[in-house]
Design goal:
The protein has four helices and three strands; from the N terminus they run αααβαββ. The protein is of the alpha+beta class and 132 residues long. It folds into two domains: 40 residues; 87 residues, 2-Layer Sandwich (Ribosomal Protein S8, Chain: A, domain 1), CATH 3.30.1370. Helix 1 packs across helix 2 and helix 3 runs parallel beside helix 4.
């Protein structure tokens, strides 16, 4: 079992515990069983470098999320739009999940659609630019 497989199992367990919020022994056993029984993604290969990069981006997003929340409180964002962002090539499903988590983690953006052709549709709020 490689490092990437271990990261995929850890991600599955983390999602399981976030969904159930139960750390009892039976729930831990069920979570481990589900993490191992879910089919893997064989079509794309991710590297440890990709995983470390996205985890670092998530760490950096934490202070950004706080700053955006404070900015929205004191300077309301009255405008919104949708943008499309290209998914990085050959992303595993675990990395796509983490990409979506990263985009949605900050208060100004949320992924509304993941296109199987390789695009994220992102809704974002922004300050209205005044034309004086």
């Amino acid at each position: 079992m490689g490092a990437i497989s271990v990261l995929n199992i850890v991600l599955r367990l983390a999602v399981w515990f976030l969904l159930t919020a139960d750390f009892s022994l039976p729930n831990i056993i069920i979570g481990i069983a589900i993490a191992f029984l879910l089919p893997g993604n064989r079509k794309s290969s991710s590297t440890l470098k990709d995983w470390l990069r996205i985890l670092w981006e998530i760490i950096l997003a934490i202070p950004q999320a706080y700053l955006e929340a404070i900015e929205i409180i004191f300077r309301p964002h009255n405008d919104e739009d949708f943008i499309r962002k290209r998914v990085k090539p050959e992303r595993s499903l675990g990395l796509v999940f983490l990409d979506i988590f990263l985009i949605t983690f900050t208060p100004k953006t949320i992924v509304t659609k993941y296109d199987e052709e390789g695009w994220y549709e992102i809704h974002r709020v922004k300050r209205k630019v005044s034309n004086k």
